[in-house]
Amino acid sequence: MDKPLVITRLLTLLLLLTASLGSLAMPFSQCIEELQQSAREQHMPEYIAGELLGQLRFQSRVIELDRSQPEFTQTFADYLHKRVTTGRVERGQKHFAEHREFLADLTTRYGIPGRYLIAFWGLETNFGSYLGKMPTLDVLATLACDERRSDYFRSELMTALRVLEREKLTPKQMQGSWAGAMGHTQFMPSAYEKYAVDGDGDGRVDLWHSRQDALASAANFLKELGWTYGERWGREVLLPRQFPWVSTGLAQPRPLRDWAALGVTDVEGSPLPALAMPASILVPMGHTGPAFIAYDNFHTIMRWNFSESYAIAVGHLADRIAGGATLTGPLNAATPELNPGLITKMQIRLSAQGFDTEGADGIIGPATRAALRDFQRANQLIADGYPSLLTFTTLKIAVD
Hints:
- Among the domains are: 20-67 and 131-213, Helicase, Ruva Protein, domain 3 (Orthogonal Bundle); 340-394, no CATH class.
- It has 19 helices and seven strands.
- It has helices spanning 3-22, 28-41, 46-54, 60-66, 70-73, 76-83, 86-98, 100-110, 114-125, 136-144, 150-166, 189-195, 211-225, 256-261, 296-304, 308-321, 340-352, 366-378, 389-394, and strands at 134-135, 175-176, 234-238, 254-255, 265-266, 278-282, 291-294.
- The strands form two sheets. A five-stranded antiparallel β-sheet has the order 4-6-7-3-5. The protein has a two-stranded antiparallel sheet with strand order 1-2.
- Helix 2 runs antiparallel to helix 3 (46-54).
């Protein structure tokens, strides 16, 4: 290998490590000492509070991944194309048929249709084909010592230690995602502790090796998160030509009958039911892409993973597993590649012009969408709350 190339790669690795260490609230060793003290205050045995915690190691890769989550950096089209594939639908249908009786029993016990459980399983670990190989305790310690969400991950780490002791696990057995999620359905430690159940009747809970434990736990989790039995997640819809785009977004629900009165139909052109149930219109690619109507269960899915793209993917995959059709709305419209830096710059520019995004965190949440809609309306753009190329141009932000 050329010497200049070696030097370049070493410098790149050094910069990444420096950036990762710079995000720590304090030196990692000092943070570990605080975590050990916290574990002792929670009366954990010394082999955990002292020995085990003292052996944990900082994972620089975790910090990199935390700053580039696909739910917030990929376009909706890219996100959906990579997750709701023909192969995944076919595998989901196969698993749905294989576990039909068990899933029916879970629906009776917990009220969750089996197609949704299979969809979560498919999106989380591709039906168990990849459970993650990162050391969960090291991951959680790294994120607990990171300044961005320290309190949350400190709590998750303490919970993971309790789960380890309760289930008689070893640190080596506890492997999972870069964020500390574990098993077939990628439960965070707090969900594992509160909602994981014994689905196969062997007297213990094992989300890594028992599909039945994982599926039953997912059903119990969704029930406790507030799933409404007998209702869908939502569906794709068609919007009329003169639709009031400013009324889109999860934060602006209306009774279903009101959307029907505005001319919103299903994809076959049939009127929506004239019901009082609340629903929101979502346009994840703006007015040039597909439109969806989201019900209460959509919010429940987002309590599992706080991402609209993820929730739509779960719902659409569940529909496809049950024999539903592909989307009719276009997914090939030209949209900018969104990244945290670009979004942060947009948030700063919007706030400077009087359209409050409630901070600049690089994530497009409800406040940012509302600010975008207000900015677009003030500048005679279609106020769909989506950061289109034209919106960036109007904001005088260059998009590479």
